[in-house]
Amino acid sequence: MTKLSCATSGGYRQKVDEQERNVLQSQRENKIAQQELADTQIREKASSQKLENERARLTTAQLDLGQTLKSLKTSKVNNQQRQKEIKQLQELQRQSQQANSASDITAIEKKIAEAKKRIAALEEANTLQ
After folding, report:
1. Of 69, 107, 60, which Cα lies nearest the Cα of 88?
2. Are the beta carbons of 122 and 81 closer than 8 angstroms?
3. What is each CA distance from 83 to 69, 89, 112, 125, in whole angstroms?
4. What is the pLDDT of residues 73-95, one digit of tens each?
5. In sequence order, what DSSP letters do the residues of the chain get, joined into one string?
6. Which pLDDT tens digit goes with each residue over 25-76?
């Protein structure tokens, strides 16, 4: 009798419809959450790759800087300008240890290139003397 009453008044159907809507809504929310998780994982992977690339650039720059400094220290040029360049390169080494962004690394790379040009000019001037 109760079932017949619910079925004829529509109460049972309403409950079933509401539960179906809830299930569908939960499924949509689950799909959205899964997509957000996948997007987050993709961004995390890209960030990790970017960080690894920046670390590799920094290591390369530091090695280049070390070789340039070593070359300058063993150079036959021995004057005040050489000492100044050595100090600048040592300061640049210190800065490279504190680099923590792509722009820092780019600035260090640029300073190394400039120092190499100055050193080449210094060595050339020394050979002309």
Report:
1. 69
2. yes
3. 11, 10, 16, 15
4. 877 666 788 888 888 889 988 88
5. -HHHHHHHHTHHHHHHHHHHHHHHHHHHHHHHHHHHHHHHHHHHHHHHHHHHHHHHHHHHHHHHHHHHHHHHHTSS--SHHHHHHHHHHHHHHHHHHT--SHHHHHHHHHHHHHHHHHHHHHHHHHHH-
6. 999 999 999 999 999 999 999 999 999 999 999 999 999 999 988 888 877 6
